[in-house]
Amino acid sequence: MAPGGLAVPAARPPLPGADAPGGTPATVRQGHDRPVPEGPEDEESGIGRLAATVERLRHEVRRAHAAADGRALVEMAKGVLVERLRCGPAEAARQLVALAQGAGVTQLELAADIVNQASQDRLAEAAGEFLARVSASRRAPADRPAVHRPEDTEPASVAVRLRTAESGALAADDTQAVAESILAHALVPLGATAVAVWAADGDSSLTLAGYAGFSDEEAARWHYVPPGVATVARRALTELRLVQVGSLSRTGLPSIGYREFPDGGRVAVPTGTGGRITGVLEIGWPQELEPQPPRIERQLEALAELCAHTLEEHPTPRGAGAGRRDRDLAELVDLAGGLHDPALVLRPHLGPDGRLVDFRIHHANSLFVDPAGRPRAAVTGSLLLEAYPLAADDGGLFEKVQRVHATGEPFRSDRMALTALVGQVPVTAVTGVSISRHGDGVLLIWRIESEAARLANLLQHAQRLGRIGGFEENLETGEIVWNSQLYHLYGLPVTALPVPLEQLPGHAHPDDSAAIRRFLRTLLHHRRPASAALRLRRPDGVTRHIRLVAEPVLGAGGRLVAVRGAYQDISSQHWTEVALAVTRDQLAHTEAQAAERNRLALQLQHAIMPPARGPILAPNLRVAVRYRPAETEHLVGGDWYDAVVLPSGQVLLCVGDVAGHGIEAATSMVVLRNALRGLAVTGAGPAQLLTWLNTVAHYLTSQITATAVCGLFDPEDRSLRWARAGHLPPVLVRGGEATALPLPEGILLGAVPEARYEEHLLRLDPDDRLLMYTDGLVERRDRSVEHSLGQLVGTAGKHPGDLDTYLDRVLTHSRSDTDDDTCLVGVELR
């Protein structure tokens, strides 16, 4: 332990190139140096010798700068020893030499350790964390070998590099020198080859304040980055954190040196003090960069802090800078006093570690209104979070003020909730907020909306949404006042002169002149409120349909002094009404056509198949039919039936259903019904008749499809031969029980060109009843056809009585709900 309580490091091997003050290896090169010709031919020439001389002088200058930086660090350590040992400078120098010799280290390494222990700042924290990790790795258990990395071989070099760079930065008089010192002393050992220091302006633009390792041509191209351009440095400035980019080409972010190192990696760190961001430190590597560990990030953040003091507005002399800040604050107070809105002047409040923790309310102007009702004196001098604790909410007022102070980018919002505590009750006011940075101070302006302002704002939005433009015309002075919406309706710029009411006919359609004259006579002569509908013709050729309303303003003695009113753009409503009228006409015409077609279809259907026919009498057979048309006329369908005694004495019994509705279905039904009647005269059986009828449906019509059941009853042997084409089976009622007949094979009519149908034979007994029907009798929307057919079979045998009464009851108790046509043929054997 050295005198004064300073810990002296243990003996360490000397660092390469650290014998001389500054400890900078002779191999360090700055990236912007030009290559030096080294060939023998060049050295023999005058140009080669001159270039070698220039290069040698450059190296000497760099070594001199490094030595000066090292001497500055040693002088800082001597100053610490003077303060700790209470001795003079000469004694402090002797103590430094003796301590270095006793520890087996160079004076530069010892000076870095002494300054680290004395300052305990961000640099000391970064170096200390690095040394602690190295020590832990060296104490690893024997069974688990320690992992050594290149940067771990010389632990003292971290402190030396950082402190040497710090001394060089403090001694530099501009940012360019700071960039060169940081690159040479601290970044080259990390593999970096270039560095750029950006100064951030209030509009979020970036200016290149210093650089090293980049060519002068590249620096000239990137001397200024406008706001809104996405770069690596802009990303760090926006996100307010260290940003790592593995490869510029893969990430796609442009930056200085992109053309020289397209695949290189970058690290950008915001620079600033006291919560105020003054710029960005950007570091470049020539190759792709792996993610850096936290200890390296700490070192880079410490280097960024070194750049902050040179990016201040007036860094030297320090007293003059403080005086300038005081003058800026006084000017800001004067500015707040001249505003017509409530305003607060805030200055940053830093914690013991130098970090921003709050803002102190330095001044409140005379118009200041506190949402909690407190006087100005109760707020002035307090911290912002003490006066308004609820401003600390995420995304709230404090965060906005903090960001403006950090970046200098102003913030404005027309509507922002500001909450204050009255007792323990939160009171929220809607305010318009404007925040801007001026030097070290922040100007916070808020305008609390009054009830009148809120109503005026609502009225303005209502007029905009309703396309209403208001006006007032003073008839005595000739002054006319329009709102902005009325200028828009007229198609005039806001700088144009308003149009008096008397000149309104010149801006309207000629056909509206009579209506406008009546409007003006009622308003100006009779002095009564008036309204008119007109077509306003604008200078751009657009015609607007306008509704104009106005009322007179009477003075003393009933004298007319002014007129006020409003224009409303009803163009959309007008064209909507026109379109609706056209649509109504078209719809009425279509409905009339449809009604006429349905009427004709219904007449045709009723003419061929009346709802009821008298019984057909044949030997041993009685036939009755029922037809129930659809309740809705436009659903007139193609259901049909037929029961006729053929010349052979057989009885033709059939029902069918043509797909579709309307007059097409009705006419197709007529074609099939008449064709079947004609074909039945040939004496062919039901299967053959359906085969021929399929040909008619497929070829001799517009390819209609239909279902049908066809039967031929022979009175002599009481036999019924029948076939079906996709139709529901007939129901046989025998002995009070009903059953559905087995289905013969047969596809619906018109589906395929060639079809064959199967024929079944049924012998009827006396008192048997046979029902042939279309699907309108049983079909339901909520049930399958099989289920509905089962219900019909279950109820068909429960209705005694004569055949006509029986058919009426079957129709009455039908459970169908599709409102479709229904045909029902009942056959009773006597």
Structure notes:
Residues 54-115 form the ANTAR domain. Residues 622-829 form the PPM-type phosphatase domain. With 830 residues, this protein is α+β, with helices and mostly antiparallel strands. It folds into five domains: 1-171, no CATH class; 189-312, GAF domain (Beta-Lactamase, 2-Layer Sandwich), CATH 3.30.450.40; 318-449, Beta-Lactamase (2-Layer Sandwich), CATH 3.30.450; 453-569, PAS domain (Beta-Lactamase, 2-Layer Sandwich); 607-829, PPM-type phosphatase domain (Phosphatase 2c, domain 1). It is 38% helix and 24% strand. The protein has a six-stranded antiparallel β-sheet with strand order 3-2-1-6-5-4, sandwiched between helices. The chain starts with 39 loop residues before the first helix and ends with a strand. Residues 1-43, 126-156 and 313-322 have low confidence and may be disordered.
Features:
ANTAR, 27 strands, alpha+beta, about 40% helix, about 25% strand, hydrolase, disordered N terminus, SpoIIE family protein phosphatase, 5 domains, 23 helices, 6-stranded antiparallel β-sheet, Beta-Lactamase, PAS, transcription, about 850 residues
